[in-house]
Every structure is written in C-alpha cells, then in structure tokens.
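Need residues for this backbone.
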C-alpha cells in the first residue's frame, strides 16, 4: 500500500514536472525537424554566394518598393483625374437636364405656333368666305341697282312721253279708241301702269337698300376677321421670336455639352494612359516578384547546408568538467529518474559559449525553462542547442562559423547554477552529444 502510493507520486511528479533541460524542447525542435534535408555539396564560397543572393533580394525588394510607390503615385493621379471626370459629368448632367427643360419649353412654343397657324388657316378660310359673300352681295346690290335704275328710266320715259305728248296721246287715244269703253279702259290702264311702275320703283329701291345693308354687315364681319387675322399674325410673330430665342439658347447649351464631352473625353484618355502605365507598373512588379521568388529559391538552395562531418568545437572552452551527463539520471531537485538530453558543462557565469560548428542560428531567444538559448542548424538535419546563457551574441537568421562566440554562460531558466547545457538533435531526435564532441 505504501509502496503503491510512492510509485503513484513518482509517476505524477514525472508527468507534471519536467527537468530544466528537457522542458519545452520538443515543440521548437520538432518544427525544425520537419524541414527537409537534402544532399548537397559543401561550397567554399557558400557564404559569399548567400551574401550576394541576400544583397540581390534586398535590391529586388527595394526595386519592388519603388515600383509600388510609382504605381501608387499613378493610381493617385488617376484617382484625381477620375474625380475631375466625376465633377465634369455632374456639371454636364445639370446642363443636360436644363436642356431637357428647354426642349419641353420649345415643344410648348412649337405647339403654340401650330395652334396659331391652325387658327390663321381657319381665319383665312373665313376671310375668303367673307370675301365671296361680299362679292355675291355686291353683285346682288349691283343687280338691284341696275333693275331699279332701269325701272326708273322706264318710268321717266313714260312720264316724259305722257307729258310731252299728252294732247296727242289723248287725241290718239280718243281717235284710236273703238268706243267710249275702250277709251276709258285705255286711260284706266295707263293710270294703272303708272301706279304699278311707282310701286315697283319703291320696291326696287327697298331691295337696293337691303342689299346695301347686307353688304355692309358682311363688310363689318370681314373687317373683324381681318382684325383677328392681324392679331394672329402678331401672335405668330411673337411665338416665332420666342422659338428663335429658345433655339439659340438650346444651341448654346448643346455647345456647352459638347465642350464638356470633349473635356471628359480628354480626361478619359488620360485615365486610359494611367491605366496603361499602371498595367506596365504591375507587369514590372510581377517581374520583380518573379525575380525575388527565383532569388529566394536560389538562396534557399544555397542555404541548404550540409554538415561536413568532423568533431565539434568544444562549446565551453577551458571548462571540461561535466556536471551532468547525457542519459538517464536522477533529477537533482525532483529526485526522479529522467532522461537528460544534453551534456551540462560546468563553467563560470560570463565565460564564452562557442558555436560547435558552421551553421545558421535558427533560434536565439528566452524561455522559462531553457533561459536564454540558441539553436544552430548545421545542415544535414543536425542541430546544436545551448541553454541557460547569461547573454546572447547572435540572433536568428545569422550565419556563424565554428568557434564563433555566440553567448555567455549563465544560469537563466530552470537551472541550479552557472553551466552550459549542450544538446544535439539529429533527424528530429536528441542524440548523444559525445558522438560529435570526441
Ligand atoms: Zn542539462
């Protein structure tokens, strides 16, 4: 029972706690362990090539930045021109809508003119009819006058005849009459004829008077029609003048619209120029990006490091005492058996930490357990790890050579005293550092 509890506690401690040297190590290293390691040849001018490639990439990125700036300036210029087009369009729209109003007014004027013209035509017909009626009336008057005048002349002749030849007439009547009755009868008729003539004359005179009055009425009517005609002609002239003014105004406004269209056309041509220049700039940027991708691929290729083999430089120069070796051990503070995945080299705080071999610094950071730590990728999926440093001399991405000072020994993170924990990972797993140290 007691033993079982003890084992449980031991297991619990093992699960809950981690040694200073194992802590939080798996994740960052596994990230790098995923990287492919390909075969390649060690090149003496490798770092020079890498520097040249990095220089190229920096230059390309600067060129891309400049191209982007130019593009942005072009885009901004184009936006200004587009804004001007917007204003011009808006102003043009105002005029177009004004012209629409003018067109409507023009249509009204032309409708009015058409109505006036119709009235004039109608009035002209009436005037023609009135003229004809007057002509007819005049003819009737002339005829009546002629008849009256003829009657008057006849009566005058008869009276003259009767009075100048009264005696002879009476003698004639007397002697030519076959009888008394005939004589009386004949004088009676003469008197009757006279009476009849006089009555007729009066009637004819009345007819003339009436014809004259009728003609006067017709003439008055025609005068009114003529007056109306004059008024209509005047209205027509006014409307025509309005039409002319409106036509001129519409022409002027349409000319303005034409000017706006020209201006908009010019600006649109500018926009097309901008678009062409932006397209050119985009093509240039795309070309630069392609070059950068190519250069980065070349850099990646050049960076593909291959570990040349051979012994590591001792990372804590002058300090060879091993305070804790690689392998299973009893944890100094937890008292449990645990795997120690590196070699602890006892060294005073501040003493140098050296890069074990040529490589690229892939981490130079701080963690609660590892303290200040450094990882160097030596290629061929070989990574060296340095922990608990008091200070770091390198940063991630930096190339280092074997024996370069990368930091100083310390006791940061979970550490019991100043020492360098040195670990080695190969193909994603910890291996015994002694394989490389001697
Ligand atoms: Zn250690």
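Answer:
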């Amino acid at each position: 029972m007691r033993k079982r509890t003890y084992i449980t506690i031991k297991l619990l401690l093992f699960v809950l706690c981690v040694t200073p040297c194992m802590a939080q190590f798996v994740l960052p290293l596994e990230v790098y362990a995923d990287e492919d390691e390909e075969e390649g040849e060690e090149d003496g001018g490798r770092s020079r090539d890498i520097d040249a490639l990095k220089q190229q990439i920096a230059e390309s990125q600067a060129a891309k930045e400049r191209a982007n700036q130019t593009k942005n300036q072009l885009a901004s210029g184009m936006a200004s021109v587009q804004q001007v087009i917007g204003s011009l369009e808006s102003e043009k729209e105002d005029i177009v809508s004004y012209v629409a109003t003018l067109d409507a007014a023009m249509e009204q004027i032309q409708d009015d003119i058409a109505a006036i013209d119709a009235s004039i035509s109608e009035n002209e017909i009436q005037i023609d009819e009135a003229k004809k009626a007057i002509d007819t009336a005049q003819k009737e008057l002339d005829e009546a006058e002629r008849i009256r005048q003829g009657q008057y002349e006849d009566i005058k002749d008869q009276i003259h005849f009767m009075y100048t030849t009264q005696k002879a007439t009476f003698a004639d009547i007397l002697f030519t009459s076959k009888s008394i009755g005939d004589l009386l009868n004949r004088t009676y008729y003469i008197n009757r004829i006279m009476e009849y003539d006089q009555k007729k004359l009066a009637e004819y005179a009345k007819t003339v008077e009436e014809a004259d009055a009728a003609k006067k009425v017709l003439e008055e009517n025609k005068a009114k029609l003529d007056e109306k005609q004059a008024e209509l002609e005047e209205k027509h002239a006014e409307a025509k003048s309005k039409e002319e003014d409106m036509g001129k105004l519409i022409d002027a406004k349409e000319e303005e619209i034409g000017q706006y269209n020209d201006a908009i056309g010019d600006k649109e041509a500018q926009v097309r120029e901008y678009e062409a220049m932006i397209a050119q700039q985009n093509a240039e940027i795309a070309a630069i990006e392609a070059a950068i991708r190519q250069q980065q691929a070349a850099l990646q290729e050049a960076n593909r490091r291959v570990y040349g083999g051979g012994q590591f430089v001792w990372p804590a120069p002058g300090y060879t005492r091993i305070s804790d070796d690689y392998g299973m051990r009893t944890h100094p503070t937890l008292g449990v058996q645990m795997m120690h995945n590196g070699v602890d080299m006892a060294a005073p705080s501040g003493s140098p930490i050296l890069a074990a071999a040529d490589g690229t610094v892939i981490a130079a950071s701080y963690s609660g357990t590892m303290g200040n730590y450094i990882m160097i990728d030596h290629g061929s999926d070989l990574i060296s790890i340095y922990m608990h440093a008091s200070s770091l001399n390198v940063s991630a991405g930096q190339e280092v050579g074997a024996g370069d000072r990368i930091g100083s020994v310390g006791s940061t993170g979970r550490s019991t005293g100043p020492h360098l924990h040195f670990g080695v990972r190969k193909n994603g797993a910890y291996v015994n550092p002694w394989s490389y140290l001697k």
